[in-house]
Specification:
single chain, alpha/beta, 6-stranded mixed β-sheet, about 50% helix
Length: about 230
């Protein structure tokens, strides 16, 4: 299992449509991000102890906090909810998320959100990501889509750069070319990512019934993240 990149339309609907399936998926990925963060903190603590560091108390506290956050978010989900997938983003993709949230707040949110509400939701979104790649120049990324849509190349580059396993996109014209299957992209350096539609992912790969997840618990999951930061 591993990281997942969500295209802009998927994440915007996850944030602005609280009753939708994409919101439920996002809550699940926030949980996976918390579990992954706890794993990384624990690894850092173990490495410090193995290196003979004299003061690992701060890291030990961080491990406990991260574990508690992951456990609390697990309690917001049905028993046995998978924790082995988390969201990956990049600075350029996050900037596109932010712009699109503002553009579509009147269309998707009922009632429409204010600019301040969008900014708060965006900061929580960033905190919910399990990993954020280093920055890159969008106009210098390879032409992964072979000219179909230059803007989408940055999404694919984010997935490859971040080592994501999957890219979820319902753009069947430019990214997920097989509506009922997978489209593989590679960077020529051995890294690959599989792109698929949200529906194909949910029915063949996710292995959890999204109807059992309460998307309204996302705000509580976000609050747990803030408390563990």
């Amino acid at each position: 299992m591993g990281g997942v990149v969500l295209d802009t339309n998927t994440i915007v609907r996850a944030i602005l449509s609280p009753a939708g399936a994409r919101r439920k998926l996002w809550l699940l990925l926030v949980y996976g991000g918390a579990v992954e963060r706890a794993r990384l903190v624990r690894h850092e603590h173990q490495a410090a102890r193995a290196a003979g560091a004299s003061n690992t108390g701060t890291l030990e506290t961080a491990v406990g906090t991260a574990d508690a956050a992951a456990a609390h978010i697990a309690g917001l989900l049905p028993p046995g909810a998978p924790s082995d997938r988390w969201a990956i983003a990049s600075p350029p993709l996050l900037a596109e998320y932010h712009r699109k949230l503002h553009d579509l707040r009147d269309k998707l949110a009922k009632p429409p959100w204010t600019a301040a509400q969008i900014d708060v939701a965006y900061r929580a979104l960033v905190a919910g990501c399990g990993d954020i790649t280093p920055d890159f120049e969008v106009d210098k990324v390879p032409h992964y889509t072979d000219g179909r849509d230059r803007d989408d190349d940055a999404i694919i580059h984010t997935a490859l750069m971040g080592g994501a396993e999957l890219l979820i996109s319902n753009d069947t014209k430019d990214i997920s070319l097989d509506r009922d299957g997978e489209t593989e992209y590679g960077d020529g350096e051995g890294r690959t990512v599989r792109a698929m539609t949200f529906e194909h992912f949910a029915t063949t790969t996710l292995h959890v019934d999204l109807d059992t997840i309460d998307g309204s618990r996302l705000a509580e999951a976000y609050a747990t993240h803030r408390g563990s930061a």
